[in-house]
Amino acid sequence: MLIKDQEELLSSLPAHWFPGKKWSMRIGTGGMNNTTRFVAVEGTTYVMRLYETHRDLDKIIFEHHILLALAKYPLPYRLPIPIQLPSGETVVRLDDEQGKLAALFSYTEGYNPTWEHLFQLKPFGKAVGQLSKALSTIHVAPNPVYPPYYEIEHIHPRCSPEAIREFCLRPSEAFLFQREMLTYIYGRFAAFYEAIPTLRKLPHQLVHGDINGSNMLVDAEGQIAAVLDFEFVTWDLRVMELAVCLSDLIDPTLPEEVLRLKCSAFYEGYRASVCLEETEYPYLPLLIELRRLDVFVHFLGRYFDGVDAQGVLVDIIHNTYDKTRWLQSYGVKLIQDLSK
Question: Which residues contact 151 (CB under 8 A, 6 or more apart)?
Fold first, then answer.
């Protein structure tokens, strides 16, 4: 009954944007953070997002503010532009007990890339660099709501530095087989904590913070058509945008030379728009690790909350261990290749 009630609420939402007009709606594939519907009005398709993980209007307003500012920047691909209501606002609160929030965005045809081929990675890097350059020009109010990546204590309310230390160094019986991995992972947290004072001094700007294949679209010819999902855009280290992308490209099961070629191809495209300072390069391996540590903490919190089973977190522990070990072995060499 609740699902039916929500569907009825969803089907009534387009009237807020298109009073007096007819529309059709079809179900879209939603991510972990939202429910998606496609709305067609007079031959034009829009994307309607129902925010599922929070009811924080300030977060959404900031995201929309950035997207509207970026709409004025001449990027060679599209972004999800918020559609304004007749009132000029861009968010609707559902008339239900939970008070969920909904928004409407422009639609771009395309599909998610997988970056299976080396020739795809230079255009990928170029697109990220172009967006990073565009974001560096935006200085707007209100202030960001999300903290930067390096403030890792804010990822999950139950994952304080003390709680992470306890879990890693004194694992419960359910994670005894991962004890050595968890001890190693905590050592990487310790190294990261020591670097925070220096990280705060590096160049900062607005960053997307989660650019990957699932948040991009390519067209039928394989050309990048859109960058999506700006929900977590915030003020952070400029180089963190690069670190996030490189972290997602690194698969420790692949040969070192293959990974170095992939990262170099991506960076060749990225540096066409962004020129890093010498002080930023040395921290790239640590920041690539930080992306994995961030994911580890996110899923640790989900485990504490009873959202995910033990097996899910075990997989994350193995992935975090493998990737941080790879970076300890090859990270410096990788960065030397990029900074030449």
Answer: none
pLDDT digits (tens, 9 = 90+) for 162-202: 999 999 999 999 999 999 999 999 999 999 999 999 999 99
Beta partners for residue 234, in sequence order: 207
Name the one residue in this structure whose structure tokens are 């255009």: 123
> What contacts 187, CB < 8 A, 6 or more positions away?
none
The pLDDT value given to residue 334: 87
Nearest to 182 by CA among 196, 164, 160, 195: 164
Q: What is the CA radius of gyration of the chain?
A: 21
| SS3 assignment, position 156 | coil
pTM for this predicted structure: 0.91
Closest C-alpha among 172, 151, 117 to residue 303 = 172
Contact 243, 148 (CB under 8 A): no
Helix axes 57-70, 121-136, angle to 10 degrees: 100
| Predicted local confidence at residue 336, as pLDDT | 85
* Cis peptide upstream of residue 19 (ω within 30 degrees of 0): no
**Minimal CA–CA distance to 49: which of 18, 80, 23?**
80
Both tokens assigned to 170:
């004194």
What are the residues facing 204 on neighbouring strands?
237
Predicted confidence (pLDDT) per residue in 276-324, tens digit: 999 999 999 999 999 999 999 999 999 999 989 999 999 999 999 999 9
* Residues 65 and 71 sit within 8 Å (Cβ to Cβ): no
Query: Which residues of the chain carry a pLDDT beneath 70?
Result: 1-6, 28-33, 53-54, 96-97, 141
Instruction: Report yes or no: 191 and 286 within 8 Å, Cβ to Cβ.
Output: yes
